[in-house]
Amino acid sequence: MTTLLKARRGRHKVFIGMAPGVGKTYRMLQEGQQLHSEGLDVVIGLLETHGRQETRQQAQGLELVAPRQLDYNGVVLSEVDIEAILQRQPQLVLIDELAHTNAPGSEHEKRYQDVELLLAAGLDVYSTVNIQHLESLNDLVARITGVIVRERIPDRLLEEADEVVVVDVTPETLEERLREGRIYALDKVPQALTNFFRRHHLVALRELALRSVADSIEEQAAGTRTGAISVRERVLVCLSTHPQSIRLLRRAARLSGAMDARLYVLFVADPQRFLTKAEVLQLETCDRLCGMFEGAFLRVESTDVVGAIVKVATEQRVTQVVIGESPTSRRLWWWQRPLTDRLLQRLRGQGIDLHIISFPGDHPDSELDD
After folding, report:
1. 191 SS3 class
2. How far, in Å, CA of 42 to CA of 57, rounded?
3. The Signal transduction histidine kinase osmosensitive K+ channel sensor N-terminal domain covers which part of the protein (predicted)?
4. In this prediction, what percent of the chain has a pLDDT beyond 70?
5. What number of CA atoms fall less than 13 Å from residue 38's CA on the CB side?
């Protein structure tokens, strides 16, 4: 196979949606048409219309690089012709259904691998995918819809993409399109409405799509500049060896759940002090409990506790910090009262709220079930 490599890597733009029929392919073609009208050399590398008339019409006027025709058990399948595209050398290639599994006999097993080769050759690519095809969301999508998605793509494709566009419609609009036969043939509509396209499925998948892209964008922003603003709430609870730490963790987990936020659990260990067996067991209990709450347990060694809290809060882009106070001694579990002042001073101007939790007593609490 002839591969024409260029100096730069091509740019990748991904159009993602919550389900089939939201308009990903139409939007991709629409933008391709606009760029074509501005003089850019745009071709279609692979288009899946699924019989949708509007999609076919939107593709008119754009050059189609004829796909490869592969015979599989007597069925002729169309796949991306990488060789022809590389020979053609367009400025932009439009390729539908990124998660598609190629027919046996293709150079690559997955279509996203075809796209990666084109990008490495310096060609810009626009592609489409549904949120349920992300590898990390496979189990969650199965729990939501009862459907195990077989065709999946690595999360890194979204993370490495130069631009990700959420093509969004309301579940009501999608249902209307489905009933009108604009997504599947009318004879398939009743089955779709009682399976994947149930209203509560669509609501959950829509939220999943919007959140996943927001998280991806946030991670990219954090990696390219300092002071990146978090678009999602993050709760950091600071634990000590105090007997009430487990209660404090549970309180923070409730706050995290109410805010639909990520949970981080921090223990700052004094490198000059050895923990007792009881303290070690308590921290292990907190670690297990943190796992039950799907949080991240962080252990940091430092003699500067306030500095360690601020450092972790900044690195993890935390929005809420939770610490505990014992009313019997009117002091924080780890340090005297000035810690709150120092922590507030260090967090000022960073958009981080500080929660100081008081409990009625200092009774030991080492059981998982409160």
Report:
1. helix
2. 16
3. 8-217
4. 85
5. 9
Cβ count within 10 A of residue 348: 10
Q: What is the pLDDT of residue 344?
A: 79
Q: Which of 125-129, 313-317, 362-366 has the lowest mean pLDDT?
A: 362-366
Domain spans of the chain, in order of start? 12-224, 234-358
How much is the pTM?
A: 0.62
The C-alpha atoms of residue 106 and residue 72 are separated, in whole angstroms, by: 11
The verdict on domain 12-224 having CATH code 3.40.50.2300 is no
Using one digit for the tens of pLDDT, what is the confidence trace for 74-89?
888 899 999 999 999 9
Q: Which H helix or E strand runs over 193?
A: helix 189-194
What average pLDDT does the structure give for the chain?
83
Q: How many beta carbons lie within 10 A of that of residue 364, not counting itself?
A: 11
pLDDT of the residue at 324: 82
User: Residue 184 corresponds to which amino acid?
Assistant: Y
Fold agreement (12-224, 234-358): yes
Residue 301 to residue 303: CA distance in whole angstroms:
7
The answer to whether 269 and 301 are in contact (CB under 8 A) is: yes
C-alpha distances in angstroms, 97 versus 80, 300, 312? 11, 44, 39
| Contact (Cβ atoms closer than 8 angstroms) between residue 236 and residue 316 | yes
The CA-based angle 362-366-367, given to 5 degrees, is 125
Domain formed by 234-358, architecture? 3-Layer(aba) Sandwich (3.40)
| Spatial contact of 352 and 264, defined as CB atoms under 8 Å apart | no
Q: How many residues are present in the chain?
A: 370
Q: Kindly report the backbone phi and psi dihedral angles of residue 128, in degrees, each rounded to the nearest multiple of 5, phi listed first.
A: -130, 150
Terminal-to-terminal C-alpha distance of the chain: 64
Spatial distance between the Cα atoms of 167 and 175, rounded to a whole number of angstroms = 16
Cα–Cα dist 295/22, whole Å:
33
DSSP result, 75-141:
EEEEE--HHHHHHH--SEEEE--TTPBPPTTSSSSBHHHHHHHHHHTT-EEEEEEEGGGBGGGHHHH
Q: What is the DSSP code (8-state) at residue 32?
A: H
